[in-house]
């Protein structure tokens, strides 16, 4: 709720200030700040900054923390509804496995698109 609604709304309203926070949060040792950096674009659909999303996910792929891996999968699953080919290509090129991959491909598999 916090990341996908409140933070997302603030970041959309104040994009210049948002960039500074995103940069700090994605580099943080705090998993909740990094998780928020992964998730804040969750409902942006075609307005998702794909490059930024994939960069932040890439920075967190080696983190085995459940909530980080879940956030990666959740963000990929939601974005797969908008750009399925990009998500599949990203998962394959980054060799994403486990929870993040299962969650990331869940919607595509359910819809028979894989």
From TrEMBL:
Gene3D superfamilies named among the record's database cross-references: 1.25.10.90
Superkingdom, taxonomy of origin: Bacteria
UniProt-listed Pfam families: DNA_alkylation
Stored InterPro entries: ARM-type_fold, DNA_alkylation
The protein's name: DNA alkylation repair enzyme
PANTHER family reported for this sequence: ARMADILLO-TYPE FOLD, DNA ALKYLATION REPAIR PROTEIN
């Amino acid at each position: 709720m916090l990341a996908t609604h409140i933070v997302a709304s603030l970041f959309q309203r104040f994009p210049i200030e948002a960039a500074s926070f995103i940069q700090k949060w994605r580099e943080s040792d705090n998993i909740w700040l990094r998780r928020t950096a992964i998730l804040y674009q969750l409902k942006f659909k075609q307005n998702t900054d794909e490059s930024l999303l994939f960069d932040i996910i890439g920075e967190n792929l080696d983190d085995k923390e459940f909530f980080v891996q879940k956030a990666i999968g959740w963000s990929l699953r939601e974005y797969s509804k908008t750009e399925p080919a990009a998500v599949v290509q990203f998962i394959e090129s980054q060799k994403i496995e486990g929870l993040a991959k299962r969650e990331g491909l869940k919607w595509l598999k359910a819809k028979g698109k894989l």
